[in-house]
Design goal:
This protein is of the alpha/beta class and about 230 residues long. It is built from ten helices and ten strands. The chain binds adenosine-5'-diphosphate (ADP) and magnesium ion (MG). Adenosine-5'-diphosphate binds near residues 36, 40 and 42.
Length: about 230
């Protein structure tokens, strides 16, 4: 089943068109990656899917429902979460408070969910009472993911979670993304680290200049010579 369908979406800022009529699909239960160089429009696309930007044209369907033009606070209630690349935590709040903020629309007991998140990211447990601004880059990224998970999303949009992290932390982040996926969360992952992203993905798209340049199974892409040369640094 398709959980997310983007149909001929045009989007941008002011008068500048950035995404030029893009279509893509994310299957339920999958990890699907969006690769492409800086400035390709990857972040703009995520913002448009999550309702931060309104599509100028085209449609976005989530679980079969037309969500085009809905604001983020409506979309989040339908079970989608978006973790931006920057400004994705509250620096002056503690780890625990950040997680509580993530659950802002829940009225039930959030304790059990919080414990599950501390299990997924044990390093955060010892830092419960630390301010987020005192954490390392890797821990901040874990906290940002944990915060988004407080609402039990069915689909997670992740914008370059590994950028700027030391290699061992990159491995941890990718491992946690895989684990979440095994727990049933569908993931739409934007990454610069194309090789690693493909290794954990079912399918992938390449975006360049606001247009789709390639799509296919992750395995096909890993084996494709041209993709390897252009996007995987081979
Ligand atoms: N807030 C903004 N206002 C105006 N232009 C923007 C804004 N954010 C990004 N852009 C422009 O949109 C294009 C695509 O950017 P972006 O979606 O961030 O690409 P990517 O995430 O693939 O690196 C770039 O030319 C960038 O300069
Ligand atoms: Mg970006």
């Amino acid at each position: 089943m398709t959980i997310l369908r983007v149909e001929k979406v045009i989007s941008g800022y002011g008068a500048m068109e950035v995404v030029h009529g893009l279509s893509l699909e994310v299957g339920e239960g999958q990890i699907v990656s969006m690769l492409g160089p800086n400035g390709a429009g990857k972040t703009t696309l995520l913002r448009t899917i999550f309702g931060v930007l309104k599509p100028w044209q085209g449609k976005i369907y989530f679980k079969g429902e037309d969500i085009s033009g809905l604001p983020p606070e409506r979309i989040v209630r339908l079970g989608m979460a978006y973790i931006p690349q920057e400004y994705n935590i509250f620096p002056s709040l503690t780890v625990q408070e950040n997680l509580e903020m993530g659950a802002f629309i829940r009225e039930d007991d959030i304790g059990p969910r919080m414990e599950e998140i501390y299990e997924l990211f044990p390093d955060l447990t010892d830092r419960r009472r630390s301010r987020a601004e005192e954490l390392s880059g890797g821990m901040r990224q874990m906290l940002a993911i944990g915060r988004a998970l407080m609402l039990n999303p069915e689909l997670l949009l992740l914008d370059e979670p590994s950028t700027g992290l030391a290699p061992f932390l990159v491995d941890i982040i990718f491992d946690r993304i895989e684990r979440l996926n095994e727990q049933g969360v569908t993931v739409f992952l934007v990454e610069q680290n194309a090789y690693k992203a493909l290794q954990i993905s079912d399918r992938a798209y390449v975006l360049e200049g606001g247009e789709k340049r390639a799509e296919g199974s992750a395995r096909e892409m890993l084996e494709d010579e041209e993709i390897g040369r252009l996007y995987l640094g081979r």
